[in-house]
Design a protein that fits this description.
Chains A, B: InterPro entries: RibonucZ/Hydroxyglut_hydro (IPR036866), RNase_Z/BN (IPR013471). Chains A, B: Keywords: Endonuclease, Hydrolase, Metal-binding, Nuclease, tRNA processing, Zinc. 2 copies of one chain form a homodimer. Chain A is of the alpha/beta class and 301 residues long. Chain A is built from 10 helices and 18 strands. The first copy, chain A, folds into 2 domains: 254 residues, Metallo-beta-lactamase, Chain A (4-Layer Sandwich); 41 residues, no CATH class.
Chain lengths: 301, 301
């Protein structure tokens, strides 16, 4: 998995800080998570092959998380897109996008498929051989979901030296990659573990923004490899969290610690602070493996 | 008048080219004309004191002319705006903006006043001591208006040396600036022209984008000081104009020539061309005073 941050600052877009949007690449999938104003420019800036995006996940309908979506949908049309585009987001998103397109008499010439969300329990949104995507219900001022991306185990890797030595026929390779034993001409079997290497361990990524401190998400994000958790404020502004339903860096770190995640990426910073390093310092008092999101930064998971 | 181009390229926003938006400053007014995605970032980049904007004019509801509006309206709220904001644009704009705000539970805490347009004749939108603003009905794929800004004559300027020499009392100054003669203590009158200088000649600016070649606008824009006219294409692509209802640089120049305007500013360039200088070269074959709009460029009118 490779995560690229297109924008990770709260509130309004500014010259050098963009509102929330991320790209997650998992084998043959390229997912877009949130789409603040300017996302399509960020996609170009960081040379993401964005025609490959087939699924867009929108956490909630505050402008800094979705005002870039109508423009991106229009741009796909101008670029001659033909493939389906799936949009997952809160109920109302279809009406909003449809109205904006209708006003401009700008229907898409590709299938635009909305999956509107309103459940307050975790839901499976998407599943195939490679990945599953579930919602993570969050606690914000409006209906909001995070998203949990869980990679499925890849096929086992053939040990070419071993299959050659045992003269295993190519017709068996797919079965062996999927766990079968090798069959010799004389009827003997060779154990699968002697013909294959372990595949890479499947990875998982949880995106949680925007949200107040919310322990009910812990079972869902337990032991994920990487957790992106918003940290709009520092503890010095924790009073603002109650009113705005945001979290502090320390609270994000507490969630990471209690969920026993591999590492924590912080983001959605208020621009009131002089340096985002302050968020890292505060979080590391609670949890050791903290990274700072920043616009244009990529993470290998 | 001072015109600042925030964006002047057609279709999609890119890293270095922005969709349509302009700021027009006329004495105490700061008008925003169109508001493509990213306009609020451009306003910051070019250090426009955008809290001073009270009137926003939207030509039509294609994304590249208004997808930045919901974000700008939200940002005004986050910045604590209290003053009225007037939005002039095609019918439907109120429903669109209202729906987007409602979905995010993000009502403005300042008065947001929509003036929806649907007339196909020119209308007076705004008038005060300084300025009048009229629509210029255009010919595009959807209902579209350009906007005509006409400055009113400023008060005459006092000739301080003359009023001092004649010992004119200060109480008369306002009347004299408005054209009255001066009255001496002995009852004699001093002619107004002997006490004042001429004020600057009132200026006018016409914004015409997006539109096909359309001679019906000529009476409205006749002899304006500056005409901004779209030139999406060059003559080599004139066939595309019919389908898309855009204009070529040559057509823009023909309109400028027939309307006897002072100068022509070209913009709304398709990004298919290597250099925007090509637009100027083509237009100058028809009309001599041609300027090229570009993002961040300012023009004194």
């Amino acid at each position: 998995m490779r995560l690229t941050i297109l924008g990770c600052y709260s509130a309004t877009p500014r010259t050098f800080t963009n509102p929330t949007s991320q790209v997650l690449e998992i084998r043959n999938h390229l997912f877009l998570i949130d789409c603040g104003e300017g996302t399509q420019v960020q996609l170009r800036k960081y040379k993401v092959k964005f025609s490959r995006i087939k699924h867009i996940f929108i956490s909630h309908l505050h402008g800094d998380h979705f005002f870039g979506l109508p423009g991106l949908i229009s741009t796909f049309r101008l670029l001659g897109r033909e493939n389906e585009l799936h949009i997952y987001g809160p109920k109302g998103i279809k009406e909003a996008v449809t109205l904006l397109l209708k006003l401009g008499d700008s229907w898409t010439n590709y299938p635009l498929i909305f999956h509107e969300l309103e459940s307050k329990s975790s839901q499976l949104l998407l599943e195939d051989d490679v990945i599953s995507v579930h919602t993570i219900p969050l606690d914000h001022r409006v209906y909001t979901n995070g998203f949990l991306f869980k990679e499925k185990p890849a096929p086992r890797k053939l040990d070419i030296t071993a299959v050659t030595r045992h003269k295993i026929d190519r017709s068996q390779f797919n079965n062996i990659k999927n766990g079968a034993n090798g069959l010799l001409e004389n009827g003997d079997e060779i154990d699968n573990v002697d013909l294959t290497h372990n595949p890479p361990t499947p990875k998982s990524y949880a995106f949680c923004s925007d949200t107040a401190y919310n322990e009910t998400i812990l079972p869902l994000i337990s032991k994920v490899d990487v957790l992106y958790h918003e940290s709009t404020f520092l503890e010095s502004e924790s009073k603002l969290c109650k009113k705005t339903k945001h979290a502090t860096a320390k609270q994000a770190a507490s969630i990471a610690k209690k969920a026993e995640v591999g590492s924590l990426i912080l983001g959605h910073y208020s621009t009131r602070y002089k340096s985002i390093e302050l968020f890292k310092e505060e979080a590391m008092e609670v949890f050791p493996d903290v990274e700072l999101a920043d616009d244009g930064k990529s993470f290998e998971i």
